[in-house]
Amino acid sequence: MRMNFKAALLSGLVLPGVGQIYNGHKIRGGCLILLVNLFLLGILFVFLQGVGPIITEAQLSGTFEPAAILGKLQQQAPAAKWLLLAFCLIWLYSTIDALLDPHPHHPDES
User: Fold this and answer.
1) pLDDT digit string, tens, across residues 46-80
2) Which pTM value belongs to this model?
3) 29 near 21, Cβ under 8 Å?
């Protein structure tokens, strides 16, 4: 079995799905890139939705304690943990899939 280290590095370090595109699997790579972007946007949305009121409250009260803000954020945005876990699983799948692809179709190896 030939390991595709360049494709795994592309998926692991650049963006999940790029290694699949490098291996010639454009649809799979495009779906992974789309999923990763959706999860990252979801994480950003949940984080901003939770942190906005907390920072506003801290500014109005005049006390800005990072530990208290982080504690409140963890209580208000538990979905962010699940979204982050899903992102990490997609990243791991993408890297392993690109590394262990049994039939890479490299355009430069015609």
Assistant:
1) 888 877 777 787 778 877 777 777 777 777 667 77
2) 0.73
3) yes
